[in-house]
Amino acid sequence: RLGHGVFEKEPLLQRVVKTYKKVKEDSALLLSACSHLLHNKELMASLAESNFDAVLTDPFLPCGPIVALYLALPAVFFLNALPCGLDFQGTQCPNPPSYVPRALSLNSDHMTFLPRVKNMLIFLSESFLCNVVYSPY
């Protein structure tokens, strides 16, 4: 649903505000679902009694790792990257937006000035949206 408005002829600021509201609404829904899962004592007790070896989870949403921590199980991520550049921060791997293309930007690593500006704007918006999504957790 987030990408449906890509071809609409709205002003940039209006599209940014609309995207921000949609991300905030979706993340509130996911946080609510996670909260209901964690507060469902019967289900959490059933999961604890099941003696699982690990929790397979998508690292995009923190609920899976939170459940894994609650159950004292290792979390196994099935994505090749962590959201918000946390994989680069965790490994202290350089990731300058002036050179390394952002995911989904369609930029190559041989960028001229305008693709570098686009890459930087994507980088800044990712930081902002990550704060919106993950700060409630």
From TrEMBL:
Subcellular location, record wording: Membrane
Keyword Transmembrane, does the record have it?
A: yes
What GO cellular component entries does it have? Answer: membrane
Which Gene3D superfamilies does this chain map to? Glycogen Phosphorylase B
Assigned keywords, A-Z? Glycosyltransferase, Membrane, Transferase, Transmembrane, Transmembrane helix
Q: Which family does it belong to?
A: Belongs to the UDP-glycosyltransferase family.
**Protein name, per record:** UDP-glucuronosyltransferase 1A1
In which organism is this protein found?
Mirounga angustirostris
